[in-house]
Write a structure and sequence with these properties.
Largest sheet of chain A: 2 strands, antiparallel
Oligomer: heterodimer
Number of domains of chain A: 1
Structural class of chain B: alpha+beta
Largest interface: A-B, 30 and 26 residues
Strand order of the largest sheet of chain A: 1-2
Strand content of chain B: 15-25%
Helix content of chain B: 25-40%
Distance between the termini of chain B: 68 Å
Radius of gyration of chain A: 19 Å
Strand content of chain A: under 5%
Number of helices of chain B: 2
Number of helices of chain A: 9
Shape of chain B: elongated
Strand order of the largest sheet of chain B: 1-2-3-4-5
Shape of chain A: globular
Number of domains of chain B: 2
Largest sheet of chain B: 5 strands, antiparallel
Number of strands of chain A: 2
Order of helices and strands of chain B: HEEEEEH
Radius of gyration of chain B: 26 Å
Distance between the termini of chain A: 46 Å
Chain lengths: ~220, ~210
């Protein structure tokens, strides 16, 4: 059975979101999301790798026997990540400096090998590309949301250092809403707390939806 | 004697090996091609980045030599924070020594060493200081970066006489340098590293400028 594109999109963006639901790739997710721009940068890099690895795995699926598939996935993903790392180093030098080790570490993001194994190795290249795109965008959305929450609460600003991504004109995008934010948000505990709140918000939305779609169940009086 | 089963499994093994080899070769080719295409651009980026930092400390119109070709190395465990050779750039104008820009390590930052570039005019006054890399807390200790705060420019024009040695410290320690709210360790480490670099420069100035370029 071939999954429809609407289903692929819904899975990647929401139902099976790599960051919020599967909780994959938490290390980069928590480490780089101190600002929105960092989130956008790593989110796009991860999306590019996901699309590339999904398409490659899907194209090669007649060749890849069960015994060697994981080894092949690792080689494919590592080559693509190295390529993206080199491209970012050449084109977005400052952003590459800030993201540092977390670009090469995309290799270790289990979401990528997970999609290669559970989706791309079983479906045609077009669907695999769509799955890579939406899984990547779903992950990027969580990175950006976390970055926004932590930058806003921690530093009182949004989109600082946007010039790293958008060139000199990007400097004008920066918004400073207030000074001296709540520092905890910028630190590691703030990352966990913010992610926890995001997950809770996601679950809350799901529950509300489930309740309203089935029957308008009587809500217990409190 | 080779029977049918093992012949077909041999064939399967050969195909598997071929597939894995193909994947490896393809991956290597992709990386090699990208590396080839981006190598030059990356090298230019690195050099521009270093030059940008150096020119923030010492404006390009104050010297006329190529800083990257006129370097020497310095090392001093106590004063420069490293036993290993650190690169020092020497700026000259018409052959006269103008300033030296030293790579210096402040060993006692809040989260590990802080790497600094310290530019010192020939007469011993500071041209400027910039942070090269650090792991200080975002939002607190990272105010030592010029992108975050102009604190680092308070060193401009200072020397071992201005302020006197006893006041080369953060305010909490009886010195003249501002510390950030909530983070004393980071500015203290930077102030000490800059002072030590000045002490080193005073003692080794002529040697720094006289040695052959490395």
């Amino acid at each position: 059975m071939k999954p429809g594109f609407a289903d692929i999109a819904k899975d990647g963006l929401w139902r099976n979101n790599a960051g919020l639901v599967q909780l994959l790739g938490l290390c980069p997710l928590l480490a780089v999301t101190t600002t929105v721009v960092n989130g956008i940068g790593l989110g796009l890099a991860t999306t590019a790798v996901l699309i590339g690895s999904n398409v490659t795995v899907s194209l090669l699926r007649p060749l890849l026997r069960r015994e060697i598939r994981i080894a092949a996935f690792v080689v494919i993903i590592a080559s693509l990540v190295t390529t993206v790392d080199l491209l970012m180093h050449a084109l977005f030098f400052d952003l590459h400096r800030v993201l540092g080790i977390f670009v090469p570490l995309i290799v270790t993001n289990c979401a990528i090998v997970g999609r290669a194994e559970s989706f791309a190795s079983r479906h045609d290249p077009v669907r695999a590309a769509a799955d890579g795109l939406f899984t990547g965008l779903g992950f990027a959305a969580v990175l950006i949301a976390l970055g926004a929450i932590r930058e806003l609460v921690g530093q009182g600003s949004l989109l600082t250092q946007a010039q790293m991504l958008f060139g000199p004109g990007g400097a004008g995008l920066e918004i400073q809403l207030f000074d001296n934010g709540f520092l905890l948000a910028s630190l590691a505990p703030g990352a966990f707390i913010a992610l926890g709140l995001l997950i809770a918000a996601g679950n809350w939305i799901d529950q509300r939806r489930a309740r309203t779609t089935i029957v308008a169940q009587p809500v217990a009086q409190e | 004697m080779v029977n049918n089963v093992s012949a077909s499994s041999l064939r399967a093994v050969a195909l598997t090996v071929a597939a894995l080899t193909l994947v490896g070769a393809g991956g290597a080719a992709l990386v090699a091609y990208t590396w080839n295409q981006t190598g030059e651009r990356i090298a230019i980026n690195e050099r521009n980045y270093s030059l940008r930092a150096l020119n923030q400390i010492l404006p390009a119109d104050q010297y006329d030599n190529n800083l990257f070709e006129d370097t020497t190395t310095v090392s001093d465990d106590d004063l420069l924070g490293s036993d290993d050779p650190l690169v020092a750039y020497r700026a000259r104008r018409d052959g006269e020594a103008v300033a030296a820009i030293l790579n210096v390590i402040a060993p006692d930052g809040y989260s590990g060493p802080i790497k600094l570039l310290v530019g010192i005019h020939y007469d011993g006054t500071l041209a400027g200081v910039r942070v090269v890399s650090h792991n200080e807390t975002a939002g607190l200790g990272d105010k030592i970066e010029i992108e975050k705060s102009d604190w680092i420019t308070t060193f401009d024009g200072r020397s071992l006489q201005q302020p006197p040695p006893a006041q080369w410290a953060v305010e909490q320690d009886g010195g003249v340098f501002d510390a950030f709210t909530g983070a004393t360790i980071t500015p203290r480490a930077v102030v000490e590293a800059v002072r030590n670099a000045l002490i080193y420069f005073e003692a080794h100035r002529d040697l720094i400028f006289a040695t052959e370029p490395t």
